[in-house]
Write a structure and sequence with these properties.
This protein has 95 residues and is α/β, with parallel strands linked by helices. It has helices at residues 13-16, 19-33, and strands at 2-6, 37-41, 55-58, 67-70, 82-84, 90-92. The protein contains two helices and six strands; from the N terminus they run βααβββββ. It has a four-stranded parallel beta sheet with strand order 3-2-1-4, with helices on one face. A hairpin with a 5-residue loop joins strand 5 and strand 6.
Length: 95
């Protein structure tokens, strides 16, 4: 299967990225090791270590793939929600 993944971070994320960016790196590596054609778009970010042999670096969006995965960071502000537990006592979802 041909899979396009994009992320806007320095590679590898284990050096200076977030947990979700590191997970994206591991996903690309794992899918490649399973035999998929993985195309990883890291935009113009610095590559500190070579990508795994099973992962192809690309610099622009590809559309001739089976799966198109793109991580987009949005600056959406959220507010903690309140809920009701099964016991009927209210609780804060975010402590």
């Amino acid at each position: 299967m041909r899979i396009y993944i994009s992320s806007n971070h320095q590679y590898p994320a284990k050096v200076s990225g977030t947990a979700s960016q590191h997970t994206t790196d591991l996903l690309a590596k794992g899918l490649g090791e399973l035999g998929h054609d993985v195309f990883y778009d890291l935009r113009q970010n610095e590559i500190l270590e070579p990508l795994p042999d099973s992962v192809n670096q690309v610099r622009e969006r590809m559309f001739d793939v089976d799966i198109l995965g793109s991580s987009v960071v949005s600056m959406v502000f959220w507010q903690p929600i309140k809920g009701v537990s099964l016991a009927g006592q209210s609780f804060d979802a975010i402590n």
